[in-house]
Amino acid sequence: MSLLLKDRVWSMEAPNVKRGVYPLHGFKLGLYRLPITLEDPVELKSIHDGLKKAFEMDMYADRIYATYRWKEQSMADPDAKGYEEVNLSVTVEIVTGEVVDIIYQVFPIEKFGDPNWVKDYRKKADHFAKMVIDTILRNTILADKMISHLAKSEKIPELAAIQRLEELTPLAKIVLGPHPKPVEAQDDIEEDDGEIEIPDGAKPGPIDVDYKSKIKPSAVYEAPEHTIKTWGRKGTSNGIMGVWGEFVSVDYDICIADGGCLEACPVGVYEWFDTPGNPASEQKPLMSKEPDCIFCLACENVCPPQAIKIYEAK
Fold first, then answer.
1. 48 CA to centre of own chain
2. Which residue among 66, 182, 194, 259 sits deepest, i.e. has the most Cβ atoms within 10 Å of its Cβ?
3. So what's the pLDDT on residue 304?
4. Same domain assignment for residues 124 and 214
5. Helix or strand or coil: residue 134?
């Protein structure tokens, strides 16, 4: 959040810093107060669970912690005489409630074993902390809340508010599938993977073009910029994934992830995402930009197992 609410950001130099009832002990403190609320346990969990692939996440009561780690080396050749390395980290804390405070501290380098050869440590730690904050604000439920706040407070359309948030979070990394909008479980969706019979390998194609009338809708998947509908998805471990995409439809239990659709698509509808546990393949081409489809059928025509069906949007 290198630009967000810059007039409300405080950096302090002191061995003992205190904010309200939250004591913090460190040599540099960054504090960001956001004019939004975050109290729903489902929303808290969506932030914690959605960013696990990007950062080391922890949650205690009303607080969420995101830790970013990096390594510094004293020289490029690890076999050279005098070579040293050290693992460094910075943690961002989200304090929730009627307002949301995001806090980070840059500790003295001595905390990591006094590696006095590390260059620009505090500058790097400060940069990485802001990268974590920008990433949180761009990819989670906080993005929706900030967009609503910006639209209301600045009296601008939602699209302009989205652009404002993007401008205010220039260091953000895009995280695939962080579940920015928590989805409540549906009664007819199977969640116990232990009761699901997992097939041995990919099922044969082609995709059943009438799947929408034959298979029950299942839990949606929240991509960073698009909510993807699914049919026949069972459990939580990708054993049976069913069909994903309302008009760029892929049967992921047929898909063998050869990558032809990614190369063929002229508008970049697809991108890779991990699906560990699926017997057909442990990576899939996600239709994360499904609304950009121009219905050229290129991906459908190059898919070897015929796992794709394109339906023109009405």
1. 10
2. 66
3. 93
4. no
5. helix
